[in-house]
Amino acid sequence: MQNLDATFSALADPTRRAILARLATGELTVMELAKPFEMSQPAISRHLRVLESAGLVNRRVDGAKRPCSLAPEGIATIDQWLSLLRKALARNYDRLDEVLQATTPKK
Amino acid sequence: MSKLSLRTEGDKHVVVTRYFGASPEAVYRAHTDPALIQKWMLGPEGWTMPVCINDARPGGNIRYEWSDGKGNGFHLTGEFVELQPFSRIVHIGRMHLPEPTPDNHIETRFEPEGSGTLMTMRMTLPDSRTRDVMLATGMEGGMEASYARLENMSANASRAA
Question: What is the ipTM of this complex?
Answer without folding.
Answer: 0.73
